[in-house]
Input
Amino acid sequence: MKKFQFFSRFALGTAFLSATFLNAYAADATIRELAKERGRFIGTILNSEWFNDDIEPQFEEIHKTQFNVVVAENEMKFDATEPKENEFNFEKGDKMVKYAQANGLRVRGHALAWHSQVAGWVNNYSGQKEKLLAVLKNHITKVVGHWKGQIAEWDVVNEAVNDDYNADWRSTNSVWYEGIGAEFLDSAFVWAHEADPDAELCYNDYSLEWGLREGSKASFVVEQVKRWKKNNIPITCVGTQTHIEIAHETTPQNVRALAKALAELGVTLNITELDIGFPKGSAGQLGAADYAKQGHLYRQFMDVFLEEPNMGEFVIWGLTDAHSWLDEQQGKTEGLLYDKQYKPKPAYDSVMASLKAHPASEVKTPYPDSILNPPKTNPKDTTAKDTTAKDTTIRDTTVKDTTDAIKMFNAPSSVSLQLVGRTLFVTGVTATNSAKIDVFDMQGRPIFSTKCKNGSADLSTIAEGLYVVRVNNGSTGLIKRIAIK
Ligand code: XIL
Output
């Protein structure tokens, strides 16, 4: 009897609690609404099928009611936007931007400088540094400029780090790295910033969820971010793609550690391409426990996301298991929130549960109100004019510029430097003609030295790009970042 009383009370209590719970979150609350209340963005891609009107009718309704940030699966990549040299195709991207504006979605741009999905014609310039710099600059300037003010955030560089045990730059099968060197990354950020100074700019990569041990990809990226910040390279965010499998149980905590490391550098961490796949062979044999486990992992990621104040976007690489790169290319399956019939999976409920468990009052947002509630734009007016054509001069942001590898003098400097074309004019150095000029790449490696003659130095042999120049006559000197064009 006692036992029965206990259980019936318990049952009643639970019923009461869930009723209150349900009331507080009316049945129609979506993960988008809860994310928005918390100053965060939850998103997914628009699958390539959507751009060709080849997707089930329920896709769009779910997409626009459940998500508040969107990324094009393929349609803003290099091969899609510049299929022929200097001939741009923005049609599909425009379609997405218009859709996003009509439905109040933030837009992520993906991706500007990436070794993959580069248009074939770029390979005609393999190994030609100057030409490749010009190609990349033109691409970034035109693409970012086209959507200026409409794309909130760009993956400026994607997957530039290799998969070695001791991570380093990806040095093979990358037309950009092989032709230009690692400074293609620095330049890409500066050009993107020039084309849209308000856009957030990310470095994006996979396998960042494997922890911060020495030599790991994540710690290599953190080191680069430190260097970029010191050198005034305008990076604002890192994207962890996070394509994982059901067995990868330690990954949420690793993402938390990465968020904390980046918080110290004043950089946001976004989850940009999450999917949590099962091995393809398990298709058809998965049961409730498997889907619950998947849900648990999704929940852990969402918990981390909401608890770390410098995380802003939680983007899943697909909406329905009916359309996912996992099956087509990855030997994995069923990694998303909705099943093939567009039914929300336990993973969806887990994401919802995590959002509910973190009240809006306790979740910090990394964004100002102007980003969370941007002024409404007229959806018809999406084709931005190319306003960047004349505005390619890289602004001098060198006031606090230092490059660790470059030693500087203590003496306060009265020296000033001015680059006109390829000639560097130096004033304020006593005995100007004995001043030594050293030029470093953005990694701090010396690449060129000369002496000042008649107050100037000839830099015409240096390839186009971003550099640090040091002028030194023994007692006075200056370090400054320059853009050689
Ligand atoms: C994938 C798309 O989903 C596929 O359709 C395409 O064939 C290849 O690229 N990392 C990225 C994404 O940054 O752009 C990739 O998208 C998945 C891995």
About this structure: The chain has 15 helices and 17 strands. The domain at 1-21+382-485 is CATH 2.60.40.3080 (Immunoglobulin-like).
